[in-house]
Amino acid sequence: MIMNMKRITIAAIAVAAIAFTSLADLKELPVKNIDGRSYHYYEVQPKETVYSICRRLGISKEQLVEANPSVGTEGLKAYSELLFPVADEKPIADTHLVKKGETIYGICHKYGITPANLEAWNPNIRDGLRSGMTVYVSNPGRTDSVKPGDVVTSVAQQAPETVKRPDFEYYTVKDKETFYSIAHSHGISVAQLEEANPEVGLLKSGQILKIPVEIPDTAGKDVAENVAAIEISVPGADKQNDPDQTAVEQNNRIEIAIILPFMAETSPQPRQGQLYTEFYKGFLLGVDSMRSCGNPIALQVYDTNGSMDTLRSILEKPELKKAQVIIPPDNESQITEIARYGNANGISVLNLFSIKDRSYTMYPNVYQANIPHEAMYAKAIDGIINDMNGRIPVLIVPEEGQTDKQEFVNALKKRMDGAAIDYKTITYTTALGMDDLKDLDRTQSYAFIPASGKQSDLNRMLPALIELKGELTGYDPAKLYGYPEWTTFRGETLENMHTMNTYVYSRFFTVPEDPWASEVDDSFERWYGVPMGSYVPRQGLLGFDTAMYLIGALGGEHKETYRGVQNGYHFIRPAGVSGYVNNDLYFVNFRPSGLIDRIAL
Description:
Blueprint: E1 7-10, E2 31-34, E3 37-43, H1 50-57, H2 61-67, H3 69-74, E4 81-85, E5 95-97, H4 104-111, H5 115-121, E6 134-136, H6 155-158, E7 168-172, H7 179-185, H8 190-196, E8 208-212, H9 219-224, E9 229-232, H10 243-252, E10 254-260, H11 271-289, E11 297-303, H12 308-315, E12 325-327, H13 332-345, E13 348-351, E14 366-368, H14 373-388, E15 392-398, H15 406-418, E16 424-428, E17 446-450, H16 455-471, E18 478-482, H17 491-499, E19 502-506, H18 515-528, H19 539-554, E20 561-563, E21 568-572, E22 580-582, E23 586-590, E24 596-600
Parallel strand pairs: 1-9, 10-11, 10-12, 12-13, 13-14, 14-22, 15-16, 15-17, 17-18, 18-19
Antiparallel strand pairs: 2-3, 3-4, 5-6, 7-8, 9-11, 19-23, 20-21, 21-22, 23-24
Helix pairs in contact: 7-8, 11-19, 12-13, 14-15, 16-17
C-alpha cells in the first residue's frame, strides 16, 4: 500500500549504485604505429552506433568524425577499425583534495577517469564524498612504464576486494565478445562486470574475467512501495558530533517535491496511476545513482488521488515551502494551481507530463519539459533543411487517405519558399508507383517528405521509393524524413525505413543496444522484481533521466544541457515568454547498415 503524505527518513537506499562508466577510455585503447605516428585503435562491433561508441570512449561525435572522416560519409561498418592519434599525455595528478560542492562525476570529468575507477581506488567514497577528503585520481599502483592496453595488477585491483562482495565465477573471453554480450549472457549489468574487473580496459580473446554471482536486492522494493515524503541523507556524515557538517548539509540540501495522482488507495490502481508509479520508481534509481553527489537529497512525494481538494491540502503543508522544484501532474488546472503556489514561494515547477499546458507563458518559475508544438515543428524543419545537403525536396501527398501531417508540410513549404528552395510535389492514389516518379531525374539526389505519418500510408510509399533509389546514380542519392510515431514501427516497415536512410524527429528516444539503457533496465528489474514497462515514452526512463538532470543541475554538476538514456533537457527562455521551455529535439537516423543513431538538433 502506498502511504499518502507520511514522512519517512532513510539514511541511504541500500542498493548497488548504477555505475555509468565508459567501457574503455581512449587512452586505455591499444596503440599501433602507422607511417611513423602512433594511433589508438578500436574495432567496431556489430550493431554498435556512433552514439554508443562515443559514450563508450567518452568522446563527442565531432571528435570521432574528425579522427575518422569516413564515418561521416559512409557510416560505421562492423569490424572496421577506428583510429585516434595519440596526443601528448598531460601529467596525471596522483591525488585530489575534495572541495565543497564537488561531486564524483565532476572530479572524474576533470581528470578524465571513470567513476568505477575512482571508487575502486578510493573505497571510502562509497560512504559519501565530503569536503576535505583526499582521493586518488590515478591508479595507486601505476608506474610510468604502464602503456595503453597493459593489464595492471595493483592496489587498485585489490581495493574493491576488501569490501564485502558476492562470490565470483570465472569466464574465458572468446573472440569478438564484448562487455555487453558477456554481461547479458550472464544476467548481470555492464557496470557490475566492469566493477568486478577494474583492471581490464580492452577485451582480448583468452582473458579471464570475474563474473559476480548476483545476490537479489530487495531493499529498493520497500522504498518504491512507500510513496511518501522521503529524505535521503548523505551516508557517513556524523551530524551529532559535527554540527558544522549539519549546517553545511542544510545549506546544500537538494529539495524536490513530486505531486502526482498515484491513486494508491484505488483498487485496482488505474493505468495512469501505474504509469506515475513507474516514473517514481525510475526517479528513485536516478536518486540512487547520484547519492554521492555531495549534497543531501530530500524528496517530498505526495498522492493527490486526482483531487483538487487533496492538492490544496498538500499545498498547505509548511514543509512543502522547502522544495526547490515541484513536479506536477498532467492536469492543466492543477498545474496552474501549483504554478501560482511556486511563483509565490520562489519554487520552480517542472512540467513533465502536459504538452499543451501554457503556464510557462505566464509564470517565470515554470519549466515546460516538452518542446512546444510550434517550436518543435520549426526546429525539425530547420534540421531537415540543413541536412538535405543539396538534395531536391520532394513532398509526397496521398490523394486519398490521411494527410495528418499537412500542417507540418505547410510550415515546411513556407520555410522553403522563404529560403528560395525549389521543391517538387508528387501525389498518388492507392499506392505510390513508379509512374508517379517517372519525371524525377535519375542523376539527381532527393529528400522525400510524406504528408502522412500513418504506417499504412508509409507502407504504400516505401516499395516505389526503394525501387527508385536503386535507379539513382549519385552517391547516397535519397533520404526519407518522417515523424515521431515512426520510431514505434517494426517488422518490414522498419527494414524499409533503414533501406531509405530515414530521419525522424522526436522529443525522446532510446538507442537500441545502448549499454547505459541496459544498465538502467537491469537495475530496475533487480530493484522491483519486474521489468520496466514498454510504453512510449518509457516512464521509468523518464523518471531516471529527470532525477539525474535535476540533482545534477541543483547540485551544480551540469548547468545547461543533459542528454540521458531517453530524454534530454536544455531549457531556454524564448522571447516574449515568462518561463522556460526545453529546446531539446533529436533526429533518429535509421541507417541502411541497420544501425540507429540519435542526433541532437
